[in-house]
Amino acid sequence: YISVTGSSDVCSSDLAPTLFLGNAPDTSSNDVEMGPASTLREFGIHVLVNSSKKSVSDQIREADKRNIPYVAIIGSNELASGTLRVKRLVTGEEKELALSDVEFFCI
Q1: Could you give the maximum distance between any two Cα atoms of the chain, in Å?
Q2: Residue range 20-61, pLDDT digits in tens
Q3: Residue-wise pLDDT tens digits, 52-107
Q4: How far apart are CA 99 and CA 40, in angstroms?
Q5: What CA dihedral angle connects 58, 77, 51 and 44, to 10 degrees?
Q6: What whole-number distance in Å separates Cα of residue 34 and Cα of residue 69?
Q7: Residue 72 φ/ψ, nearest 5 degrees
């Protein structure tokens, strides 16, 4: 998996991440890692999980700086519903998707 902790990475994949998963202030990176990130990886999506305490806007800038094309910020509502609002950074297009549909948007 790929995880962001400040400026260092822990990687077990040579593939660039497709989706940056950020965490809202009400959600821990561990919740994101054990829930949505794990599920998305099972679908074959290369995910980078933010584990810093940065603001949501800083997390989006981090994804853009790393050239990761898609971003989703996960809060308690997303964890409870099993859906994500995924943003395509190049166009600004956003869609609310079930976890099982994220791979079709992120192509």
Answers
A1: 32
A2: 999 998 888 888 888 899 999 999 999 999 988 899 999 999
A3: 889 999 999 999 999 999 999 999 999 999 999 999 999 999 999 999 999 999 87
A4: 7
A5: -100
A6: 22
A7: -140, 135
Selection from 31, 35, 29, 36 nearest residue 10 by Cα: 29
Determine the Cα–Cα distance for residues 11 and 45; give it in Å rounded to an integer.
Answer: 14
In sequence order, what DSSP letters do the residues of 47-83 get, joined into one string? EEEE-S---HHHHHHHHHHTT-SEEEEE-HHHHHHTE
**Measured between alpha carbons, how far is 45 from 43 in angstroms, rounded to an integer?**
6
Distances in Å between the alpha carbon of 96 and those of 57, 67, 86, 91?
A: 19, 22, 6, 16
In this structure, which long-range contacts are made by residues 26-33, counting pairs with CB atoms below 8 Å and at least 24 apart in sequence? 26/75, 26/76, 27/74, 27/75, 27/76, 27/78, 27/79, 29/3, 31/74, 31/79, 32/74, 33/1, 33/3
Looking at residue 13, the DSSP 8-state letter turns out to be -
Locate 25 and state its tokens: 């202030």
